[in-house]
Amino acid sequence: MSIQERILKCVSRTNWILFALFTACGFLFFNKAFALGIFFGGLIVTVNFHFLARALKKALNPSALNYYPVALVKYYIRFFVSIVIIIVLVSKHVVDPLGLFVGLSVVVGSILFATMCELKPKS
After folding, report:
1. What percent of the residues of the chain are helix, what percent strand, and what percent coil, each to the nearest 5?
2. How many other CB atoms are there within 10 angstroms of residue 24's CB atom?
3. Which of 32, 60, 81, 86 is most buried, with most CB under 10 Å away?
4. CA 51 to chain centre
5. Closest CA to 31 of 96, 106, 91, 87
6. pLDDT tens digits for 48-70?
């Protein structure tokens, strides 16, 4: 398995683990709006990452190079839908913006974790 495949597998798995961990900690230690911000932010970014990974696998397949424009359009649709959801959640005061920011950082944390695992010296 190549380094890229290992990192992608680690990030995909770690996304859901961090999402569950951050959400559980949010509901245990913070108020409801902050915890809901973590939940919705983590859900938005994790689902977007999952769909982006699937679209890129399909788009970068040599036998399906004509799929690239479709993948790009789907990316922008997901991006704008995510923006609308975030605006509605914040404007209706359903979530705390700081909690939403923490939730949206789940993928960044997963990428950092996967990178550290790959850079760790193998014994």
Report:
1. 85, 0, 15
2. 13
3. 86
4. 10
5. 96
6. 999 988 888 877 777 766 777 87
Q: For Cα atoms 63, 69, 73, give the angle at the middle one, nearest 5 degrees.
A: 135
Domain boundaries along the sequence of the chain = 3-119
> Residues, the chain, total?
123
Helix (H) or strand (E) holding 110: helix 106-119
**Whole-number Å distance between alpha carbons of 46 and 56:** 15
Specify the amino acid at residue 87: I
Residue type, 123: S
Question: Which two tokens mark 95?
Answer: 């979530």
Query: Would you tell me how many other CB atoms lie within 10 Å of the CB of residue 84?
Result: 10
* Whole-structure pTM value: 0.86
* First vs last C-alpha separation in the chain: 18
